[in-house]
Amino acid sequence: MSSGNKKLVLLGVSGGIALYKSLEILREFTKKGFDVQVVMTSNAAKFVTPLSFSALSGHSVITDIFSSESGIQHIEIVKKSSLFLCAPATANLAGKLASGIADDALTTIALACTCPKVLVPAMNTNMWLNPIVQKNMEILSKSGYEVLPPVSGSLACGESGPGRMEEPENIISFCLDLLTPAKFFSGKTILITAGRTEEMIDSVRYISNRSSGKMGFAIARQAKAMGARVILIYGRTSLPPPNVDIGISVVSAEEMRNAVLNNFKNADIIIKSAAVSDYRPENVYSGKIKKTDEKINLALIRNPDILKELGRIKNNSQYLTGFAAETGDILNSAKLKLKDKKLDLIIANDISQKSIGFDSDENKITWIDKNNNIKSLPVLSKDRVAQEILKKIAKDLELH
Q: Known catalytic residues?
């Protein structure tokens, strides 16, 4: 199916008025040297004929899993694909995929794909905001799909609000980041901290937090994909660490501080995403504390503030990013932290939202830079959040 060394993109098209934009997406992919195989639902073929897509792609459009080509051949196409993109993705299609239903060519191929998968929803505002549709999108995001949310604007139905399909140029840019990440950081070293620290109370008990390390590991993966030499210092996590240049496992805040300071001078960019315990027990009991009827008073003392220390000693050529996991007035707290710790960028997220953040595959962040530029992102996968953070840093350093 793929021509020569061209990467193959599977372009799924489901039935919605926004599918006229799919022709532009197809045209742009072919201009950029990709081979594109279009798969359409029967409803999509009622809006725009398959012939239009066939003429632009140079391939017959797949509309029926039981066409002249057998299902086995369709699976062969899946094996050769570098990306599956469905634009537009209707509420009906999303519901089927979230439920594991494969009753036509598009859903069968989508469920068989193991390559990166992107869904670009487009629908009526009320449909998009329907809790069932939102739940389906959450299921799909957690199942490995990248969901590029619709934008607000005038819709074909005459209403205005979220539901409008993202513009083709933004969809293409998003997909290219997945297929061929820009090597912004070639020749640069990025030091990343991830996971949580643990402070021992006795030989079996400790103080810690709920951080899983997923956000920091996502940043490490994406930084590596963008050409950086990556030093990853990580605390406790149940996840296997990503493939990096130097990986250092630590337990306590003091161990993390030592590892960070030992590698700090070699880093051009520092991203402190680890959830470091602010306090530790003043005294650690030897052995296990026995249970009695008596109260136990646990005295805590402050751990070193690693991020503040880095802000104090970094040189003018180093770029320092911190995270602020907050509740309440998160923006004001983040602004104070940005200034107090002399950061170039701070990433704030509201940890009171239980469905995202800690131990989730998704996150919703707002960043503030040292020039007080503020940008909020929608709920995205943590890998996608990592990409956006790194692109912001590359832009600030004029590496793009």
A: 157
Asked whether residue 295 carries a pLDDT value surpassing 90, the answer given is: no
Number of separate domains in the chain: 2
Q: What token pair was written down for 133?
A: 């549709």
Residues 111 and 199 in one domain: no
Per residue in 68-120, pLDDT (tens digit) is 454 555 677 888 899 999 999 999 999 999 999 999 999 999 999 988 899 99
Confidence (pLDDT) at 1 = 46
Q: How confident is the model at residue 268 (pLDDT cuts 50, 70, 90)?
A: very high
Is 1 within a domain?
no
* Whole-angstrom distance, CA of residue 188 vs CA of residue 234: 20
Of the residues 127, 148, 179, the one at which a domain ends: 179
